[in-house]
Every structure is written in C-alpha cells, then in structure tokens.
C-alpha cells in the first residue's frame, strides 16, 4: 500500500531550501569586526573554511560571531563539535554582549549590506537544485500546506524567495520574529488539526530535540542530507528508527513514497 504523504510539510530554510553559507560567513565577519573593533577587516586565511566546516553546530544568528571567536581563539574543532551549547554560552559570558546585541549586530550588518548592494547580497545565496520548483508545486497542491519554519528573520527569507520569483504567503512563514522554538510552532500546527506533519530540517540536534517531545510523537522527522550536518550525524539518522535521512533527489520527487524509501 502506498504510504500517505503529509498534509503539512514544515520546511527549514537555511540548509534545506537555500544555501546561505557564504553570505553567513561574510555577514558574521562584518558583525565580528563591529563587535570587536580591533580586528583586521581582512579575515585570516583558513577562517572561512573552518566556519563552513563548523556550521552544523549553529542554531541561530547570535551564535555566529561567537563561532568566529572560537575559531580565532584556536579552539579545536572536535571540542567545538562536542561542546558547542556550553562553549557558546561561556564565550557569550566572556564577551560581555547579550544574545540580543549579537542578533541585532548580525541582522543589522545584513540589512546594511542589502541596502548597499542588494544584487551582491542575493548573489552569495544559492537555492538547492530543484527546490524552488518543489515549493511551487506544493504551494499549488490543495491537499497539502507547505510552511517554512526558520530561525532567520522573515524579511530576509521573503527577499530571497521573491528573487526566485516566488511570492510566499506570509501566513506560511514562521521566522525568527515569532520568537518561539520550532517545536512550539509544530505543536501549534498539530493543535490546528494537521494530522500528518513532516518536518524537514538539516540540523540534527533540532530533530533530536523534537524527537524527545511526547506531544510531537506523530511528526515525521527528515534530516536533509544536503544541508549543514556532519557524516556522523547522517549516520545516526540512518540508524534511527524515526529520523529519516532524506536525499535531495527524494526531496525533489513529487512522489512522497520516495521520501520513505530506504536508499
Ligand atoms: O539563518 C539562520 O539563522 C538559520 O536559519 P534556519 O533556521 O533556516 O536554518
């Protein structure tokens, strides 16, 4: 029997729909230089590469300048991967900044960049192959509601989707502005009557968090194999009975049966 598809598809943005890695590094570097004004504005060689490699530890924007701090302080990658939730709060305390100050600085640098050079800002993003076509198809599907749940500010998401020719309904976008964890949004959608919610996210820790919540036991969990996660996290998803490792090819398929197929 064919597996029924979702009645609500909840999609993360950065690392599932859009690859914003290069932009995030550049914006975070600008923010870093503003927060620590003694910094040479030219990033030392190798910093960007380490930032790309360590991106999977990050949940949201305020952590980005602190990740740069950790890199510049030569903290080993293994320690950052193993201890980031604790380490980021230690770095935060030492920095003397609040999470709000870090967020405002990162988003402020992004706003300034957009203001100064919108084409340049858009050009450092890349939508993953086939994703815009899938979003269009789901938007036109009466049996299915597709929503985006992201820790990015909504205005940036709408700007990027607009550039790709997609007018995304504001009601189907839950950005950082709503100030609640993704798990709360999923719980609200369940409470609104959706029965088969599938959540696609590239951050393994976020899926693990949802997995542990008794109220969200019915939510289907998919790790986007093409996003910001490590080989070890993809392996853990492959060995997990609930979290499924989703290849980009299956994500682009109109047949939801392919999402469940074992590779
Ligand atoms: O851009 C961010 O801060 C992270 O965004 P995401 O929740 O869409 O992965």
TrEMBL record:
GO terms for molecular function: phosphoglycolate phosphatase activity. Gene3D superfamilies: HAD superfamily/HAD-like (3.40.50.1000). GO terms for biological process: DNA repair. It comes from the Bacteria. InterPro entries: HAD-like_hydrolase_sf, HAD-like_sf, HAD_sf. Signal peptide: none annotated. One of its GO terms (cellular component) is cytosol. This is Phosphoglycolate phosphatase.
């Amino acid at each position: 029997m064919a597996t029924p598809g979702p009645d609500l598809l909840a999609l993360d943005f950065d690392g599932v729909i859009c690859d914003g890695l290069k932009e995030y590094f550049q914006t975070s570097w600008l923010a870093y230089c503003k927060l620590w004004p003694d910094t040479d504005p030219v990033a030392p060689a190798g910093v960007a590469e380490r930032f790309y490699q360590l991106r999977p530890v990050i949940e949201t924007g305020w952590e980005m300048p602190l990740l740069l701090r950790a890199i510049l302080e030569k903290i080993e990658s293994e320690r950052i991967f193993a201890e980031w939730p604790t380490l980021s709060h230690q770095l935060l305390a030492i920095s003397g900044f609040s999470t709000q100050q870090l967020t405002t600085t990162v988003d402020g640098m992004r706003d300034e960049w957009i203001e100064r050079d919108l084409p340049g800002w858009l050009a450092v993003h890349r939508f993953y192959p086939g994703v815009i076509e899938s979003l269009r198809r789901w938007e036109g599907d009466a049996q299915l509601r597709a929503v985006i749940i992201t820790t990015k500010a909504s205005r940036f998401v709408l700007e990027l989707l607009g550039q790709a020719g997609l007018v995304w309904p504001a009601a189907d976008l839950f950005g950082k502005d709503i100030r609640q964890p993704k798990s709360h949004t999923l719980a609200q959608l369940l409470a609104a009557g959706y029965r088969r919610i599938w959540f696609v996210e590239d951050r393994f820790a976020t899926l693990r968090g949802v997995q542990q919540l008794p109220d969200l036991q019915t939510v289907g969990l998919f790790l986007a194999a093409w996003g910001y996660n490590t080989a070890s996290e993809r392996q853990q998803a492959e060995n997990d009975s609930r979290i499924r490792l989703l290849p980009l090819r299956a994500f682009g398929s109109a047949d939801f049966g392919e999402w469940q197929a074992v590779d």
